[in-house]
Design a protein that fits this description.
The chain is an alpha+beta fold. It is about 20% helix and about 35% strand. Strand 1 and strand 2 (about 30-35) form a beta hairpin. The longest helix is centred in the first third of the chain and has 14 residues, at about 90-100.
Length: about 475
């Protein structure tokens, strides 16, 4: 189904199917749907409450839903069956109404997953009208991140919605250099997190890294506007750092939390739905396939399904709330796997065969995965871009080499319809389009040598003087 086309989701009149004790006929407008009761119970609070109420209606073979559109219920059924349909404007409004009226949480999550610059205003307005607060907030945050591009279009929103959008904090581009733990008596002024001041087009200090924190071969990720740093190494012997650290961007505070059961470095750390996932990595110079999940609320790690094979330093991206990892095989093969947390399962999605010399990174925009890779051998400074669409299953080689006179660009984060890339000499914002990435703005480079970690954080609008991180022995570093 083409995005925004409102393609066929199936027939609405399914009354010819035989009834069973496990099925229910649902009448919506002039259509009748024969649906598995278990499907409705699992994904829909309205029907779950109905079937458990003991009321007469829960024993009937047919239920008539009044005040709903059949198209919205059809979208809900598709999502409950595990589909991820693209939706037209009319389908979005009907789906929001259905998600709110029947309390279909999987449908509300799907709508949040497909918010983009084409539908964010409609999503925000519809969610406000029907009371889907999480979707309303997600769409408003997206609009805030793209406010410079959408400001004129937001005039179509009611005044209260515009005020709410403007009250939110946009995402900031944040970066950290690669550092080993430091000695307290030799505090390294370069051991900082920095954020990009887009107005001044320059990087500014956000906070100091804790003394014992390592970003060298560590796992870094953002979850719920908190930066998590796990593992990493100290010294040439690659001794694993035992402590794990969390930076709360809203409170501007550092805390420690439990470390993985298996010491590891050069691994992939993913934040998703209240959990961290530590995938693969190395220990004592051996690559691993083991994987652990950290429950943030319970402050506890547990082992989950191993990765398909041993992997270290794998690139990852989340597209439409799905987790994808690149498993690179030198010198020309990249396998992309999906990890599904709900089923604790891995599946091979696609394989890209392209000659390249080393490494790559991957970012997501809408339902596209963009893999940046180095050119082969003598052309290794070229940064080439390939696009994989998770809906169609098609690869596209993007035009251009994504290189500038000041150096190749090997890292990126996506905000709205922009990709931010950075090296020591230059920070460059690209506009993501169907034909590729087009340079949009140039800003100063990140003033640190070595590898760079990049991510997005929402910083309070009123920021105080950057704080030094505590050393976690019960004392604060002196001001």
């Amino acid at each position: 189904m083409e995005k925004g086309s409102g393609g066929d989701l199936g027939s609405g009149n399914e009354s010819e199917r035989p009834d069973t004790a496990a099925s229910l006929r649902v009448r919506v407008e002039d259509s009748v749907f024969t649906v598995d009761r278990a499907l409705l119970t699992c994904g829909c609070d309205y029907f779950r409450a109905l079937f458990r109420s003991g009321m007469r209606e829960c024993q009937q073979a047919e239920v008539h839903l009044r005040g709903l559109r059949a198209q919205g219920f059809l979208v809900a059924l598709a999502v409950l069956r595990g589909e991820r349909p693209a939706l037209s404007a009319d389908q979005i409004v009907d789906a929001v109404e259905c998600a709110a009226f029947l309390q279909v949480e999987p449908l509300a999550r799907h709508l949040a997953d497909i918010v983009d610059s084409d539908n964010c205003l409609l999503m925000c307005h519809s969610a406000a009208v029907f009371g889907l607060l999480d979707l309303y907030h997600s769409a408003a945050l997206f609009i805030r991140d793209m406010y410079a591009d959408l400001q004129e279009a937001t005039e179509s929103l009611p005044w209260e919605l515009r005020q709410y959008v403007q009250s939110l904090t946009p995402s900031c581009f944040v970066a950290a250099g690669t550092h080993s733990p430091s000695m307290e008596i030799l505090q390294d002024s370069f051991r900082t997190l920095c954020y990009l001041d887009e107005g001044e087009k320059d990087w500014k200090r956000l906070t100091d890294l804790p003394t014992e924190a390592s970003t060298s071969m560590a796992g870094l990720t953002v979850l719920a506007n908190k930066l998590y740093i796990v593992g990493g190494v100290r010294g040439v012997s690659k001794q694993v750092v035992e402590s794990s650290f969390c930076y709360d961007a809203t409170a501007d505070e550092w805390t420690t939390f439990a470390s993985p059961c298996q010491p590891r470095y050069n691994f992939t750390l993913v934040g998703h739905a209240g959990r961290l996932y530590a995938i693969g990595g190395e220990f004592e110079k051996s690559a691993m396939s083991s994987m652990e999940s950290y429950d943030v609320e319970a402050d506890a790690w547990s082992f989950v399904s191993h990765a398909p094979r041993a992997v270290a330093g794998a690139a990852y991206a989340k597209a439409m709330s799905r987790i994808f990892l690149c498993f690179w095989k030198p010198m020309d093969t990249t396998d992309i796997y999906e990890y599904v947390p709900g089923r604790d399962e891995w599946s091979l999605v696609t394989t890209l065969i392209r000659p390249h010399s080393y490494g790559h990174c991957m970012v997501a925009h809408r339902d596209n995965l963009y893999v940046m890779r180095n050119g082969p051998y003598a052309d290794f400074l070229r940064c080439l871009l390939d696009c994989y669409n998770i809906t169609t299953g098609q690869w596209t080689a993007m035009a251009g080499h994504y290189i500038n006179s000041k150096g190749a660009l090997f890292t990126a984060v996506v905000r709205g319809d922009s990709a931010f890339t950075v090296n020591r000499m230059l920070t460059l914002e690209y506009a993501i389009g169907a034909g590729g990435w087009n340079p949009r703005r140039e800003m100063k480079g990140f003033p640190r040598s070595g590898s760079v970690w990049t991510f997005l954080l929402r910083l309070p609008k009123t920021r105080h003087k950057p704080r030094q991180a505590p050393d976690f022995d019960g004392r604060e570093d002196p001001p």
